[in-house]
Structure formats: C-alpha cells, structure tokens
Amino acid sequence: MNAPTSSNWTIDTVKGAPEPDIFARVRALATAAEESDGNPPLSEQTLVELRTADDPDMLLGAYAYLSEGATHDSGELIGAAVAVLPTDGSPGTLEIAVHPEFRNCGIGSALVESLGAGIGLERLRAWAHGNHEAAAKLAAAHCFIPVRELWRMRLVHQADLAEPALPAGVTLRAFNTATDPDAWLAANAAAFAHHPEQGSMTRSDLDARMAEDWFDPAGFLIAVDEAGTMLGFHWTKVHVPAPGTGGPHPGIGEVYVVGVVPEAQGTGLGKALTLAGIRHLRNAGLEAVMLYVDADNEAAVKLYRKLGFTRWDVDVMYAPASVE
Q1: Whole-number Å distance between alpha carbons of 82 and 17
Q2: Residue 137 forms part of a structural domain
Q3: Annotated binding residue at 267?
Q4: 289 labelled as ligand-binding?
Q5: Which tens digits make up the pLDDT trace of 136-190?
Q6: Is this structure's pTM higher than 0.90?
Q7: Structural domain of residue 65, as residue ranges?
Q8: Pairing of the two strands 92-98 and 124-129
Q9: Which annotated residues bind acetyl-CoA 1 (predicted)?
Q10: Residue 113 assigned as binding residue
Q11: Which end of the chain is more exposed for a tag (fewer CB within 10 A), N or C?
C-alpha cells in the first residue's frame, strides 16, 4: 500500500479529554500499534487521563486523520500524540502512536511539532515504549536524549517459589473497595514519596483503575498489623489477550505495584508481599508474571533477579537536551 503524503492527512489539536468516539478510536489505534510492535504505545495513566480528565489545561492531544482522496476512508484516525501536563508545573509526558500501515511518511514528526507549537517541547518528557528504532530516531531528530530507563522483567519458571515469610504480627487480606481507598492512598503516598508517578496517585486515579475490567480486589493484597494499620500492599493485575489475538495462553500476570510504608521497610515485608502476589497469580493459572522497575533501582532489581525475574524489554524516557 502506498504511504499517505502530507497532502492527504490532517492534524487536529484538542485540549482536554477527547469526545468518547475519538477516545474509542485512540484505543483502537493503540491496540493496532501494540499488536504490531509488542509494546503498548500509550501508558495506562495516559489512557486514564484521556477518558477522565476534567481540566483542559492538563491534556493536549494531536490527532492525525486521513483527508478526502486518501486510499482509506477519509476521517480514519492514523496517529495520535498526547501530552499530559501536571498542574504543579513539573514536566509533562508525551506519548505517540502511529498506525502500522501509515508509518515512515512524517506523521510522527508532524504530531510532535503540532504539540510543540501548542505548549513547547521543552516542557515535555517523551516515553518510547520498547524503545524501537523509529522512536529513537524521532527523539534524536527533535534533540531529545535518553534520561531514564524503565525495565520490564518477566518470570516464567515459578516451581521453586519460596513461601512468603511475613513479619511477626502482620497478616494479609484482600483490598476492601468500600473502606480501604483513603488509607491506601496515604500508604501509597508514603511508600512512594520520591517516585515521579506512583506517589502522586489521587482518588480519581484509583477510582478510574477500580472501574477497569481487569480490577480484582481479591488480587489486591493488603498487609496490616495487629491493630489493623496498613503497612504495605501488593496490587496484582492480569493482562488478558484481546479476543482473536491471544492464542491458547491465558494471559500474563503483573506485579502491578508493591509498596511498604517507611515504618515497615527493612523488615522483609516487601519480599513477602512480592511472593504472596506471585503465588496468587500462579494459583489463578498464570504461567508468566511481569513487572516494571526503574533500571537504577538497584535494590529492587537485585530482589527481582533473586526471585528469578529476567530483563524482558525496556521503556526509555527522552528529554530535550537543552534542559538536561
């Protein structure tokens, strides 16, 4: 198929959350890109913001559509770039998806330039999920350099998984959607006080995830002391293949987030929670488990390697060279 030229596609920029129809088309675009590349082009947080953002200044999207006279139907969404902008003035995040059938014709660059014209690229940090060659070239073309690596690690052999050894007086229970949200948000903020994304989760962020089809409170393990105080948690997630794309396997489990409040750190609770969550996923029939971890988090990487996890893939964050 002949690639479209700039004369038969157009770009619209939209502040705030797009209309539901456009959001559905963005998700379909992201699915097509993921099936081609093996990596989701848009993060879960970006998809949440696209669906729920109520502050138009927090979100700017650039959407590429086929014009009249194109090979495919006019109006088809063939690319999207989304910038999520924190209200505290910290750098925003940029993510891009281009349909596999419409690459190598300048759409990615045009999307970046459209956003840059609206807000200034110096305000953004761009994620390249999987750090594919095309993404690295696009970053270099706009004078962005790598500043952070997020590893995706995978565990596929779990036969010798150790029993969780909880500290004395600590027990595990399932998350209670009615009574636990506020206590969990406080524990999460304390556990991830220095984490750029996880520590800033809000009630609306939590509610959005609890509304997702994958959410299962039975797989959201809470560690409490004898007084019922929340000390830590292991939130697991199950990735189920989309109908018609998954083959015979049941999907993959994820160590979605493990956190321990400062007062309970150094007690072995983090390792015990990690093991308990992996066992929960294995008991659900999942043969493989994955997780994300910052490459420079040496303690966490060491723990996961000891448990049998190996590096599987990498996401790279790029920032303008001029501001680094």
Answers
A1: 10
A2: yes
A3: yes
A4: no
A5: 999 999 999 999 999 999 998 766 788 899 999 999 999 999 999 999 999 999 9
A6: no
A7: 6-152+318-323
A8: parallel
A9: 96-98
A10: no
A11: N
**310 marked as binding residue:** no
CB 102 within 8 A of CB 1: no
Token readout for 98 is 């281009």
By percentage, how much of the chain surpasses pLDDT 70?
91
* Residue 226 among known ligand-binding residues: no
- Annotated ligand binding at 266? The verdict is yes
Q: What angle do CA 204, 193, 181 make, to 5 degrees?
A: 35
247: annotated binding-site residue?
Answer: no
User: Known binder of ligand: residue 145?
Assistant: no
The pLDDT value recorded for residue 287 is 85
Is 212 annotated to bind a ligand? Reply is no
Q: Say if residue 295 carries a ligand binding annotation.
A: no
Per-residue model confidence as pLDDT tens digits over 33-64? 999 998 899 998 899 889 888 788 889 999 99
Verify that 148 and 164 share a domain, yes or no. no
> Is there a binding annotation on residue 97?
yes
141, with CB counted inside 10 A (0-12, 13-18, 19+), is: exposed
Burial class for 267, CB neighbours closer than 10 Å (0-12, 13-18, 19+):
middle
The answer on 179 and 113 residing in a single domain is no
Residue 13 belongs to domain with CATH number: 3.40.630.30
Q: Is there a binding annotation on residue 260? A: yes
User: What are the residues facing 173 on neighbouring strands?
Assistant: 222
Indicate the number of domains in the chain: 2
Same domain, 117 and 219: no
301 is in an annotated binding site: yes
What interhelical angle do 44-52 and 203-210 show, nearest 10?
A: 100
Residue 81 assigned ligand-binding role: no
- The reply to whether 197 sits in an annotated binding site is yes
**Mean pLDDT of the region 119-148:** 94
* Residue 240 annotated as part of some ligand binding site: no
Q: Is 112 annotated as a binding residue?
A: no
Is 77 within the bounds of a domain?
yes
Q: How far apart are CA 43 and CA 217, in angstroms?
A: 22
302 marked ligand binding residue: yes
User: Do the annotations mark residue 96 as ligand-binding?
Assistant: yes
Q: Is the residue at 312 inside a domain? A: no
Domain membership of residue 294 (yes or no) is no
State yes or no: 106 annotated in a binding site. Answer: no
